[in-house]
Structure formats: C-alpha cells, structure tokens
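Incident log, support desk, overnight shift.

02:14 A customer reports that sequence design results differ from what the structure should imply. Their input is reproduced verbatim below. On-call engineer (initials T.W.) acknowledged and began investigating.
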C-alpha cells in the first residue's frame, strides 16, 4: 500500500437549501448539525463529516437523467501540487 495523498475530509451533498437537508440527515443518521450558514451545513456522524452545500442553479436528480451532480468527496491534502500530479497519473 502506498502512502496516501490526503484524507477524506467530508462527504458533501449538493443541494438548493443546506439547512433542511442537514437536519434531515442528522435525524436519520443520529448526528448533530454542528456548523451552518446559508451556503453550507455540517453534520457530525462520529468519525465522518457530512456536509450539505448550496450549489447555484442546483437541479435535483431525476432518473434517468445522469447530468445532475448529486454529491462529491472533499479530500484534504497537505501538498496540493503533489496530490494533483498523483491523481492525474
């Protein structure tokens, strides 16, 4: 196993309104909404951080449309240039 480039910072759910989505997942998964603004909210779930992020012109997913982005992983790195080179390789 090679040395990791970074660590998973959070799983981010894209949405139009972060607060209600964060409250929903906090209730469903037994977490706590620990930070929030109009732009994003954070739900602490033990060792995992789930964030809800306001996306301009957000379009909710509609099956079978595969063009709508639904989530992304936030990867925290110490050396962005190194991480980019390794990811592109």
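02:41 Re-run completed on a clean worker. Output:
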């Amino acid at each position: 196993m090679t040395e990791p480039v970074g660590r998973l910072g959070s799983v981010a759910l894209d949405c139009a309104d972060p607060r209600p989505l964060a409250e929903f997942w906090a209730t469903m998964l037994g977490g706590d909404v620990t930070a929030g603004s109009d732009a994003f909210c954070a739900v602490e779930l033990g060792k995992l951080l789930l964030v809800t992020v306001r996306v301009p012109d957000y379009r909710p997913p509609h099956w079978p449309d595969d063009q709508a982005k639904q989530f992304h992983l936030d990867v925290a790195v110490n050396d962005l240039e190194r991480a980019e080179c390794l990811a592109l390789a």
